[in-house]
Amino acid sequence: MADILQILILGLALGGVYALMGAGLSLVFGVMRIVNLAHPSLIMMGAYVAFWGFRLYGIDPIVMLPVAMVILAATGVLLYKLVFEREAKSAKYSEMTVLLTFAFAMVFEGALATAFTNTQRVTTPDYAVDAIFIGNVFIPLGQLYAGIVSLVLIGALALYLKYSRFGYAIRATTQNREAAELLGVNVNFVGLVSFAIGLALAGAAGALVSFVFSFFPSKHWEWIAILMSLVVLGGMGSILGTVVAAYILSVVAAFVGFFFGATLSTLTFFVALFVVLLVRPQGLFGEKPELA
Amino acid sequence: MSLLTVKNVVAGYGDGPAILNGASVDVQPGKVHCIIGPNGAGKSTLLKAICGMLKIRSGEVTFKGESLKGLRPDQVLRKGICFVPQERALFPKMTVRENLRMGGFSMTDKRLLEKRIDEIEERFPILKERRDQHAGTMSGGQQQTLSMARTMILRPEIVMLDEPSLGLAPKIVQEIFDIIRVMAADGITILIVEQNALMGLRCADWGVVLDLGRTLFEGPAEEVLADPRIREAYLGAKKAA
Amino acid sequence: EIVIGASLPLTGAFSISGAKHDQGYQLCVDLINERGGINGEPVRLITSDNRSDPATAINQYERFINVDQVDAVFGTFSSRLTFPVANILARNGYVHPAPAGGALRIYTQGHQNLFYFQPNAAEYIGSSVTDMIQELIAEEDRPTTAAVVVADDFFANAVEAGLLGLQVIDPADGSVVEDMAPGYLAEAGIEVVYTEKWPEEGFNDWLNLANSVKRSGAELIIALTASAEEAVQVTRALQTVRAEPKMVYYSQGTQAEFLEGTNDASEAILVHTSWHAAAPYEGVLGGQPFSNADFVELYQERYGDFPDEDAAIPFAVCQGIEQAIIGAGSTDNAAMGEWLYARTNEDPVRTILGRFAWDERGLPVDKPFLMAQWNGGELQFVFPTDEFETSPLNHPKDGF
Amino acid sequence: MLEVKGLSKHFGGIRAVDNCSFSAEKGRITALIGPNGAGKTTAFNCISRTMTPTAGEVWLDGERIDHLRPHRITAKGLSRTFQISRNLADMTVLENVICQSKISGWRDLFKPAMSPSEIDKAMAILDFLGITRIAHEDGSNLSYGQKKLMDLAALLMSDPKIILLDEPAGGVNPTLLEEIVGHIRALNDKGMTVLIVEHNMELIMRLSHRVVVMAQGTVIADGTPEEVQKNPAVLEAYLGGALEDAA
Amino acid sequence: MMSSYDTVDQIVAARKAYNETLAQAADRTRVTWLPVLLLVILALFPLMQFVGNYNYPIHLVLYTLMYVTMASGWNILGGFTGYISLGHSVFFAVGGYFAGMILARYGVSTIIMAPVAGLVAGLLGYMIGLITLRVRGPSFIISSLALVMICRILFEKWQFVGGAAGLSLPINDLPVQWAKLPYYYAFLVMAAFGVWVAYRVKHSKFGLGLRAISKDEIKAESAGIDTRFYKVLAFAISAFMFGMAGAVWGEYLTYVRPNIFVHILYFSVWPALMCILGGKGTIAGPVVGAVLIVAFNEFFVATLGASAINILATGLIMALTLMFFPLGLIGTLARYRKLPRALNWD
Ligand SMILES: Nc1ncnc2c1ncn2[C@@H]1O[C@H](COP(=O)(O)OP(=O)(O)OP(=O)(O)O)[C@@H](O)[C@H]1O
Ligand SMILES: Nc1ncnc2c1ncn2[C@@H]1O[C@H](COP(=O)(O)OP(=O)(O)OP(=O)(O)O)[C@@H](O)[C@H]1O
Ligand SMILES: CC(C)C[C@H](N)C(=O)O
Ligand SMILES: [Mg+2]
Ligand SMILES: [Mg+2]
After folding, report:
1. Which residue stretches of A58-140 are H helix?
2. What pTM does this model have?
3. Is the minimum distance from the CB of C337 to ligand 3 under 6 angstroms?
4. Membrane spanning segments where (chain A) (predicted)?
5. Chains near B (3 or more Cβ pairs under 8 Å)
6. How many C-beta neighbours within 10 Å does residue A134 have?
7. How do residues C218-259 score in pLDDT, each as one tens digit?
8. CA-nearest residue of chain B to E9?
9. Looking at beta carbons, which residues of chain A come within 8 Å of C197?
10. Of D71, D89, D100, which has the smallest distance from its Cβ to E226's Cβ?
């Protein structure tokens, strides 16, 4: 019983991190129909911000989190202005952006690796290797903090989208870009801001990841497929779906790992994706497609 | 004095060929204007060019003496020109009330917005009845009512409607044109594009025939309606026997 | 001018070791040039980065051979990359000095040009661990149970095969390359209570793994990783779950980066190594004696850091090739290969890793691995005790 | 002859089509009318199986077809157009049309598509509809009405026995509409069964032999145009005061 | 009333003239001499071995030809049908493993087994397609990424084929100078076959159906096209090409291993990128793309080494091309009617 509880806790702990990693991706897809394959490499960038803050000045990664968010948001603004703003007008937009962001994933990877080498890094605040023990069940502190921060950020984002004026604009743009434009929403600005928010979330996720996982620039490939699975599973563009999928799958993966071995546990995400494609192609929270 | 002047506008999609080749329209305040023309003449294109969705390559669009060229749709809207496109421009997963609220997105005064919404709901009871229903699940006619009602929230000076009667049942078509008259009576200037040309022109004060990307005829609606050339070329009347 | 090519994993999963291999090769080549080159000819080293990717490594050796027309090559790092590279070097008849490619299967393919510059094949490493336990630890203090966790990597799997007594099979024809049964742990009377293998890429759930290791209650934790990076991950996870083993042995983790990533948690962790700064080996360079101590000194002078085995092994490779060229009198690779094969324990290749002579497979004869232990932030040499001076073994380990 | 029995299609709580039965007789023009949201398009979708019906049966010439995939139904001789014209961008009108030609068996699949015989047939149809001029124009660069005609041409390419037209007149210029009406009638004269959805009452009254009226997913009236016109339920639900106008 | 026309006939005439300016038939002259000439030149190229060491150029041409095979295959699914797969390395690996194991166990050359390996890959593609082709757009792309992950892990787990350590294959016993030639000619034949298949498919009814599917699946289905079968068949054909290429590549490399063969960048993304760079849906596009990408890569390797900067540069080139040549080189040039006739192979 303690075992089961323990695995559940470990699964949930990882789930929190994946949830935040996936949330930004989902937001950007939802609003802009960009499948941002560069998202994991941007998370990596956030992780490096936190890493160097810690390494050079001893700043705690959680304290560095806002800095990472700002830097990444700025990157987002730049990227949007230079690339996606003009891309948005192209006819093959959706599939074009997949390939384009793939290219940028390579650019960021190359840039990070050139700047920081491909040496594996991890920030080492004390809590990252600490845990709270309750009887013989433990809660890893690093992941607990990461999970809490992630929930706070996702919650704030959800509230913002639901109630703020700008949130309205974002939701409206998601549902009908042209109509929003005609009602006085500067859709380009909405795109810009949501892209920046999405990337800020990547920055935040990066700061948290920096002490939960070890990382090096080319590691983002390992994250891409996992995060993408979450987004499809949750239903493309549904942030809630992504978060729920992140938690469910992390827990399932933890159990699979425990009962069937580590190798199969990494398979969980992808096999789940295929099962979902078979039984519910639109994902947990997605819209049913027109043709059955 | 005309409220909105479109003069020799040339415009097209992307870097494709010019679709409009010198279209001109004079919009008089408080009147209903109806643009007719064959399919592919560029009627929708003209409205899109006015509201800033398309780049105007040459020619002039002036609103109260100010040029609208180069403005974004949201900026044109703020000037007081509202456009309801051919495909109903609703937010399908927002409720009716949220849709109305989006209509006033560019308003800063929240209380005024709520007041206007209440007024609109008074005038169109169906919207009050369905206020919490998702717009996407309403019937075509209801959706059209909603999108037109929504434009009235801003009290714009000009409303441009692209084929408001398209695909609507005869009973609803009647209602839609009634609403247009109501809006006009409220002092809103109206510019509609209609294929249901008979009804459109009957409802209008001023008629415009757009073809080949240009304005071919322009005049009081009754005159346009009565012109035998127009009747045959555009209104489907058999060759005068 | 003698041109030598080396493709190394400067980036990617093996970047730490790869970068140090680069330093080792470079330092050696520079020292040779300072000493007047080989047979009076200056040496030029071309290195390229294969991103830890085997296909890229193959392609880069193709380029060395056909485009750069190098006179000789140095091997690359890790079994994973060495295995495919061995084929192409064999086809082109180049002497293949391997700095890191311990898996037995590399040496059982019948290549005639292969020379391993580490003590022994990976399958046999486990014996150093159990020998040490039996020689240094009193009967009642010895660990009786073990948990073995392994990266799914060519090298790590090989070490695992030795420890657990598995069959090494060539999947090509299904033949048994070597049957390691019953395995060093079984021979030493240590019961394996938990095993787990994680995939080479995409594995993140270290805590779950560490938790299972802890739950198994094993007294000896063996973590076989292919890189120092993974060793850091395992250690941090074990620390988080507060595992309480008596003894911990890793297949990787001699590097300063390991210490940096783990800090106090490194205490009393055992790692096998091919090289140690304290080993009083005498080698040759540029025709003159060149001792291990010289290497440590010159390395520090050049790079500022203290060297580790990942810099020392390639240095030895370079020494070996130098001696082969001198011995053969030219860069005729066939002659160099013959000369190297002719080495015996009495007339060996002399390097900072000690003496090398090879059997017909290309594996060194009579060279046991060294065991080292992290104590107080320092990697101490603890076993074997018969050859050189050692530090005392810190046992039992006081948990994490 | 097409027969729909007890057809239902529900979207969550919305009963778009609810236990609806009607039929289209061979060689005649049957009109399906009704207020917006009555479920006409949904019924079409269920018949041509681009949507899976919740319940009910569809029979074509004594054969049940509601379990078949759409292309099989097309192969059985039932073709349809879409209310919102679906055209294939980046393909010429000719390709759009030929794309719809029948394919029989494996070997046919790898035969050249634009064979002279196919092109001749397609051009003949385009000629019949008077749009040969745009044969090489990109399918997406057409005006609304031309798209409707192209749809009709593509429809004919598959030699259908019965065609389902969803608002062929919507958004079409009145002059062009006259042409379309002429074409539909000509087809019917050649023995083709037609089921048509339209809001243009004047056209319906002129064209159809029989009118089925739907409201809220069910059939509320069924009869000749004259009968239906007088039906008070239809007047109430659908026509309002519009009839005098059309007359 | 203002007006420029007096009678209806004038209006009708004017409209007719206006419409005629819009419609113009596309330029449909294709070129066959260039591909044939290329084929001849490439067939004779290895004779250069008599005058010097051209091993590396031969390697490069061989490498390019392999990519032509794959990119042409990818084109059938990604270019004609509009399903962007970033997971075709799976079929490359399946072909490689299948033929590799047969070579290792029974000594049958992969060159002979290549078509069989292709069929195995194609069959697997057919079955996978039945699942993944149920979704389209971004979901499909992501499912293809997941496919790569699953396949890699399964191969790593499968000890019979060597697990993570992989499978080493025997070296042929030709002299170094000629050792590459069997593979060179094998890839030459496969590349020519790939281009020919793409051409045939494009002009068949099947190809027209695929193009319809890529534009609007519902429309295609109700036009009487068995979309599910067409899509899956396209998937299988493209998988076939990858399987064949993988088979021979395994023997050429003498090493088959999950991480080499299921490599997402080299064998999934590159073929896709080549196709898109050259021009999706065109016949010459994949060929042009393959030549360009291999050349770029070689240039970077030669100037920058295979370092991180190389990745950066590749990414940048890819991004710039996508931004400025969204239809690929062939597609964009054709769009602006600047395509040299020699490159119109359609
Ligand atoms: N998005 C677009 N891209 C390129 N060309 C377009 C686009 N939309 C319309 N066109 C072209 O512009 C021309 C005019 O189209 P427009 O929609 O303005 O016609 P319209 O007068 O509104 O016709 P209808 O009555 O059928 O709606 C047509 O020839 C059409 O092919
Ligand atoms: N995909 C869908 N999801 C949910 N509801 C739907 C969907 N499609 C149609 N509906 C609903 O089903 C009902 C019937 O719609 P349908 O399009 O069949 O009407 P119609 O008779 O064709 O109307 P119109 O004359 O306006 O075209 C409407 O209430 C509509 O909102
Ligand atoms: C550093 C080493 C011990 C590596 C090992 N020789 C290998 O084959 O991968
Ligand atoms: Mg229009
Ligand atoms: Mg309908």
Report:
1. 61-79, 85-87, 93-116
2. 0.89
3. no
4. 6-30, 37-57, 63-84, 96-117, 137-161, 182-211, 223-249, 256-279
5. A, D, E
6. 11
7. 999 999 998 888 899 999 999 999 999 999 999 999 988 899
8. B233
9. 261-263
10. D71
Cβ–Cβ gap E225/D133 under 8 Å: no
Nearest CA to A222 out of C13, E345, E103 is that of C13
Q: Is the pLDDT at C189 greater than 80, yes or no?
A: yes
CA E133 to ligand 4 centroid distance, Å? 35
- Distance, in Å, from the CA atom of B224 to the CA atom of D202, rounded to the nearest integer, reads 22
Q: What is the ipTM of this complex?
A: 0.87
Residues of chain A positioned with their CB less than 8 A from the CB of C241: 131, 138
- List of residues 6+ apart from B28 with CB closer than 8 A: B2, B3, B189, B205, B206
Assigned domain for E121 exists? yes
Q: Do C84 and E168 touch (CB under 8 A)?
A: yes
Q: Which pLDDT score is estimated for C212? A: 92
- Tell me which of 3.30.230.10, 3.30.870.10, 3.40.50.920, 3.40.50.300 is the CATH number of domain D2-246: 3.40.50.300
Partner E contacted by D69 (CB < 8 A): yes
User: Does the residue E24 lie in any domain?
Assistant: no
Give the CATH number of the domain where residue E130 resides: 1.10.3470
CB of D172 closer than 8 Å to CB of E53: no
Is the per-residue pLDDT at C384 higher than 50? yes
The number of folded domains in chain E is 1
Average pLDDT over residues D57-74: 90
Assigned CATH topology for domain B1-80+156-164+190-241? Rossmann fold (3.40.50)
Q: What is the pLDDT of residue C25?
A: 96
Domain positions in chain D are 2-246
The Cα A226–Cα C95 span in angstroms is 43
Q: Does C58 touch chain E (CB under 8 A)?
A: yes
Residue E11 lies in a domain: no
Atom of ligand 2 nearest to the CA of D217: 14
Range of the domain at E251: 33-343
Q: What are phi and psi of A117, to 5 degrees?
A: 60, 170
Give domain status of residue E22, yes or no. no
Task: Work out the end-to-end distance of chain C between its first and last CA atoms, rounded to an integer number of angstroms.
Answer: 54
Which pLDDT band holds residue A95 (cuts at 50, 70, 90)? confident
Q: What is the pLDDT of residues B137-156, one digit of tens each?
A: 777 777 888 888 888 888 88
Q: What does each C-alpha distance from E170 to C21, C62, C390, E99, E103 come to in angstroms? A: 29, 17, 45, 13, 8
At B58, is the secondary structure helix, strand, or coil? strand
* Tokens of residue C260, six digits: 């940096």
Q: Which of D9, D41, D45 to mutate to test the pocket of ligand 2 (most atoms within 8 A of CB)?
A: D41
Classify strands B189-193 and B206-211 as parallel, antiparallel or unpaired: unpaired
Nearest Cα residue in chain C from E172: C91
Can you say whether the dihedral through the CA atoms of E113, E119, E121, E124 is positive or negative?
Answer: negative
Q: For residue E279, give both structure tokens.
A: 């021009």
Residues of A in contact with D51 (CB under 8 A): 290-292
